[in-house]
Design brief:
Number of domains: 1
Helix content: 40-55%
Strand content: 5-15%
Order of helices and strands: EHHEHEHEHHEEHH
Number of strands: 6
Largest sheet: 6 strands, parallel
CATH class: Alpha Beta
Bound molecules: 3-methylbut-3-enyl trihydrogen diphosphate, magnesium ion
Oligomer: single chain
Length: 261
């Protein structure tokens, strides 16, 4: 049977209990709007990406300070490879330099790093930095920081299904035993609770192939602020939006209030 032996760092993927519902356990962010931020200042798009690193640092510090257990950041989608090669190259160099620069603070703050996405197309330098950062933070027990680079939700699900198909073909997995949990354990986010709060900056109301499976019951927050301008106040507004939601997971509002009482 295809049991995953990786340790689960969080209890389960089931809804958080009511008393801890105010702070999201897992926050997932599409950091969008860097290009428009730069264009509005007559700067090259890449300058927006450089500025975006500051907003990323702010978001990591804010979430870690509030006791968020996992923060997933969409840094580069599987579709972003279609952008002009100069922009792609600048983004890849930015990932390398930001990782090098930020790693000491992440280590110091007990943050554990995980990269999700298809790594094959990365330069050796980036692959090395990713490996180094994951290794240096492997034993950390604080917030898990998940960076989605060259990531696509459809890629994630497809890769998980392929793993299960191999197990079935080799006689290690009975198709009748495949459940939601079986597939969940093969995704790149295995071991993390599903995101409670999704944030997309930059004004677009779409998922752009982010965590398609994992966002099934996530509270969705869209705001017009461009990513380089997304500061602590903007984060606070998103957390307040989350705190005001009633999460029903299919039940009635009466059932939920009864359970809380
Ligand atoms: C998000 O900002 C960063 C990446 C996709 C890498 P954009 O570059 O998409 O910025 P806009 O949407 O063009 O303003
Ligand atoms: C989504 O933003 C990907 C990231 C922020 C990394 P895009 O700017 O690429 O999304 P679309 O193409 O406008 O949907
Ligand atoms: Mg965009």
């Amino acid at each position: 049977m295809g049991h995953d032996t990786r340790p689960r760092r969080f209890d389960s993927v089931s809804p958080a209990p009511a008393d801890s519902a105010v702070i999201p356990r897992h926050v997932a962010i599409i950091m969008d709007g860097n290009g428009r931020w730069a264009r509005a200042r007559h700067l090259p798009r890449t300058e927006g990406h450089r500025q975006g690193v500051h907003a990323t640092r702010t978001a990591v510090r804010f979430c870690a300070a509030r006791g968020v257990q996992a923060l997933t950041l969409f840094a580069f989608s599987s579709e972003n490879w279609k952008r002009p090669s100069a922009e792609v190259n600048t983004l890849m160099s930015l990932f390398v330099s930001a990782l090098e620069k930020e790693l000491p603070e992440l280590v110091q703050n007990n943050i554990r790093l995980r990269f999700i996405g298809e790594r094959e197309a990365f330069s050796d330098k980036l692959k090395h930095r990713i490996h180094e950062a994951e290794a240096a933070t492997r034993d950390n027990t604080g917030m898990e920081l998940v960076i989605a680079v060259s990531y696509g939700g459809r890629w994630d699900i497809t890769a998980a299904v392929r793993c299960l198909a191999v197990e079935v073909a080799e006689g290690r997995l009975d198709p009748a035993s495949i459940s939601v949990e079986t597939l969940d354990r093969q995704l790149s986010t295995a071991g993390l609770p599903d995101p409670d709060l999704f944030i997309r900056t930059g004004g677009e109301r779409r998922l752009s192939n982010f965590l398609l499976w994992q966002l099934a019951y996530t509270e969705l927050y869209f705001c017009d602020v461009l990513w380089p301008d997304f500061d602590e106040d903007a984060l606070q507004a998103a957390f307040e939006f989350f705190a005001g939601r009633e999460r029903r997971f299919g039940r009635t509002g009466e059932q939920v209030s009864h359970e809380r009482a």
